[in-house]
Write a structure and sequence with these properties.
Serine Threonine Protein Phosphatase 5, Tetratricopeptide repeat, 517 residues, mainly alpha, two-stranded antiparallel ribbon, 2% strand, globular
């Protein structure tokens, strides 16, 4: 080993003198330090030919398990059972660490195991009553269960003792707004602005309040002011505000700027659920199935049970010709929600257009009509399909088709949207909710909230090299972006300008209690 070292030094010296200028061969790599753990000393192990120190204390071993959990959470498709296993292994080394237990609860909630998640959050809340994280997580869990009154009560109880917590107030404002209690919403927004005039969650809620009231210009002004406030005061952009501005532009009929703002939201926060859903819907409309699949899968990597993304992914798989996978996903959705009219309608279209199974398709269309779903468009399409017979070249109902566009043209249109020259055809999008709190650990729980249900519109069919896309609608109820999420406790054991050239008034405090018309 020493002789080899001297050889390297000598060769280096000769090269420096130019004596070996004609020799271009590289010196051989140094031999490995070890081949097995037995070649290393005490408390060391052999990895890739090197001896490394191994964890020798419970704390060190717990840290190693937490690092493994973090690596698993960074994967494109998170394996939550494996993450839970890593966290639980850490807890076996350092029992009772509340932060690690809380992260296990978040994983359970991501998986839809609400009972176990609730048990973890309640225990954390009892042990640390001043910590807002368990309160925010419980509120979100109750909301996902449809227990909105219980979610509001949980937040109000916390604010009675800790009235200065702005993230809890932001979540409460969101719940009031969704319940159409606009006076209570405005009361919470005012309380937030008094303490933080640039709070992104307050701007988000105020803009969405005006949007719900049909005051589109006020909604746009407030949201642009919020974007400017983040740039000038917070120095950190908020993806939810850009997403909401995109939604407002859709309502105003400016689809170019809508798409540009959805893309900006995705650029600011690539994990933002609502922006990925909206871009998935738009890509699906353009028959850009590969891009749509990317966005839907990103949502599902964070929220495996997200109904919107699963429905969109099924349509995308069908468009890509992966009929077996699409059918399995459609059938799984119906097994879980046997009376879901949207899933029933989409599966009927898939059977008719892709599998050419007229009998099964017609049975599903009749079942859909029997549900008396209050969607005139879908009912018209279902009746049209019932009058049709499957043939190899069967045309779809004319009303269900969108403007013809090749896949190449669609891709160009999507690229143009980035510079605010986007094409038409974007589906209705969902608002981003109040801005998420700064996450302190993983996994960071998104805070989706039901958006105002848009008028359903079938996804236009676009000629593409892949099989013809179904005229089924884009996923029905776009899920919103994160609200003021519970910033997770650290899992360590103890020891750009707006894309639209839009002129707006300077950032301002909230409007008066009774919004101006």
């Amino acid at each position: 080993m020493r002789h080899y070292g001297y050889i390297v030094v000598i060769v280096g010296a000769l090269l420096a003198l130019g004596l070996f200028a004609g020799c271009k061969s590289e010196p051989p790599p140094p031999p490995p330090e070890c081949q097995t753990d037995y070649d290393c000393g005490v408390n060391q192990a052999c990895e890739a030919g090197k001896c490394i120190k191994v964890a020798t204390t419970p704390k060190m071993r717990a840290e190693a398990y937490i690092k493994r959990a973090e690596m698993l959470l960074a994967e494109s498709r998170v394996n939550y059972p494996a993450v839970i296993e890593a966290y639980q292994a850490a807890l076996r080394e350092v029992p009772g660490v509340l932060e690690i237990e809380f992260n296990v609860g978040l994983c359970y909630m991501k998986m839809g195991d609400y009972e176990r998640a609730e048990s973890v959050f309640l225990r954390a809340k009892a042990e640390k009553p001043d910590d807002p994280n368990p309160v925010l997580a419980l509120s979100r869990l109750y909301k996902m269960r449809g227990q909105n009154d219980k979610a509001m009560q949980t937040l109000n109880d916390y604010l009675a003792s800790y009235p200065t917590n702005l993230e809890v107030r932001t979540n409460l404002a969101t719940l009031y707004r969704e319940a159409a209690n606009f006076s209570a919403t405005m009361e919470q927004i005012r309380a937030i602005f008094v303490r933080d005039p640039a709070h992104p969650g307050a701007f988000n809620n105020l803009g969405l309040l005006y949007l719900a009231q049909g005051k589109l210009l006020l909604a746009r002004m407030v949201t642009i002011n919020g974007i400017q406030a983040q740039e000038n005061v917070k120095k950190v952009p908020d993806g939810g505000l850009f997403n909401n501005l995109g939604l407002i532009y859709l309502k105003l009929g400016d689809k170019d700027r809508a798409v540009a703002n959805f893309r900006k939201a995705n650029q600011v926060d690539p994990t933002l659920v609502s922006a990925n859903l909206n871009l998935g819907h738009i890509s699906l409309d353009f028959a850009d199935f590969a891009t749509a699949k990317k966005h839907y899968e990103l949502v599902l990597s964070q929220e495996p049970e997200n109904l919107e993304a699963r429905q969109g992914l099924a349509q995308t798989l069908a468009g890509l010709g992966q009929h077996g996978e699409a059918l399995a996903l459609y059938q799984q959705l119906l097994r879980e929600r046997s009376n879901d009219p949207v899933a029933t309608f989409n599966l009927a279209v898939f059977y008719f257009d892709y599998l050419k199974n007229q009998s099964e398709a017609h049975n599903l269309f009749r079942r859909f009509l029997s549900m008396q779903y209050p969607d005139v468009r879908k009912n018209e399409l279902a009746n049209q399909y019932l009058q049709m017979e499957v043939t190899p070249d069967e045309a779809k109902p004319e009303a269900a088709q969108g403007p013809e566009m090749s896949a190449e043209d669609a891709a160009k249109m999507m690229e143009a949207a980035e510079s605010e020259a986007a094409a038409t055809g974007a589906t209705e999008a969902a608002p981003a909710e109040a801005a998420p709190a700064e996450p302190a650990a993983t996994p960071a729980p998104e805070q989706p909230a039901p958006a105002p249900e848009p008028p359903p519109a079938p996804a236009p069919e676009q000629p593409a090299p892949t099989p013809e896309p179904a005229p089924a609608p884009a996923p029905e109820q776009p899920a919103p972006a994160p609200e003021a999420a519970a910033p997770e406790a650290a899992p360590t054991p103890p020891a750009p300008e707006p894309p639209a050239a839009e002129e707006a008034a300077p950032a301002a405090p909230p409007a008066p209690e009774t919004p101006a018309p």
